[in-house]
């Protein structure tokens, strides 16, 4: 099924738009992490606040190094923007270490960010780049499982992250559902198991589970190797919709359509994997 959802409403010029926050790593190549989030947030018409958790040395062929921001500086960025600017929803991406994860969980708790709180939280448990380069210390997986995922309104792992977090290798619909149950059991309100890495399929299906019902979001598979930043683009579109007060299933439907269009608009860059691109939204605006 392909979901036909209306675009998010845009704020008239000169009026303050809805604000969102991403807590994640930077990508010097501009394809993933905070750069991907910021592109989608801008194209969704929301104002993006940013808490940098790590700086990666990255291009289209891989990540050669990263630098972690001190945990209190990460939390300080979150506190500074939430108490002044105010946000409608937040997302986490690359957090690198146990110390940063714990610091982010603590400041989110302090500020009312998380499941059953005022501000919804999407947790993308980023653990490695698409090239297989690590973005999270292995020792920090436990902190994700026991500290951050239980605070998530929605957790959005790809299949590699599902395997690391739950030990389940997803190979089909049945194993994807079992994995979604395991992630929900860790305490997330909703678990979204992303199926982009099941490359045998002619479609790409993400499975959403809320503890009682499974919803499937399917799109045709786009044949491209320029899929860098796909997970971030999906997550930031979901967060933009959540900030507008949409329900989680509606926000996921919107995000799925958004990332599919962005995969179709992806482009070659450098010698490796190019980025998915939400710039199609500019052409939509031209056509309107
Ligand atoms: N080739 C593709 N065609 C269509 N959708 C895709 C494709 N690759 C990934 N997706 C979708 O993009 C989103 C990101 O998925 P995935 O690649 O699994 O995560 P990540 O980018 O975090 O590794 C999901 O909604 C997934 O279904
Ligand atoms: C800073 C940062 N955050 C996230 C990703 C994951 O994105 P991808 O799976 O497309 O490599 C990344 N490569 N870099």
Automatic annotation (TrEMBL):
Gene Ontology MF annotations: ATP binding; hydroxymethylpyrimidine kinase activity; phosphomethylpyrimidine kinase activity
Domain of life of the organism encoding this protein: Bacteria
Pathway terms, separated by semicolons: Cofactor biosynthesis; thiamine diphosphate biosynthesis; 4-amino-2-methyl-5-diphosphomethylpyrimidine from 5-amino-1-(5-phospho-D-ribosyl)imidazole: step 3/3
Keyword Kinase: yes
Residue stretches making up the Pyridoxamine kinase/Phosphomethylpyrimidine kinase domain: 27-276
Biological processes per GO annotation: thiamine biosynthetic process
Pfam families: Phos_pyr_kin
GO CC, any one term: cytosol
Catalytic activity: 4-amino-5-hydroxymethyl-2-methylpyrimidine + ATP = 4-amino-2-methyl-5-(phosphooxymethyl)pyrimidine + ADP + H(+); 4-amino-2-methyl-5-(phosphooxymethyl)pyrimidine + ATP = 4-amino-2-methyl-5-(diphosphooxymethyl)pyrimidine + ADP
SUPFAM superfamilies, A to Z: Ribokinase-like
Protein keywords: ATP-binding, Kinase, Nucleotide-binding, Thiamine biosynthesis, Transferase
Function: Catalyzes the phosphorylation of hydroxymethylpyrimidine phosphate (HMP-P) to HMP-PP, and of HMP to HMP-P.
Matching NCBIfam families: HMP-P_kinase
Protein name from the UniProt record: Hydroxymethylpyrimidine/phosphomethylpyrimidine kinase
Natural source organism: Rhodococcoides trifolii
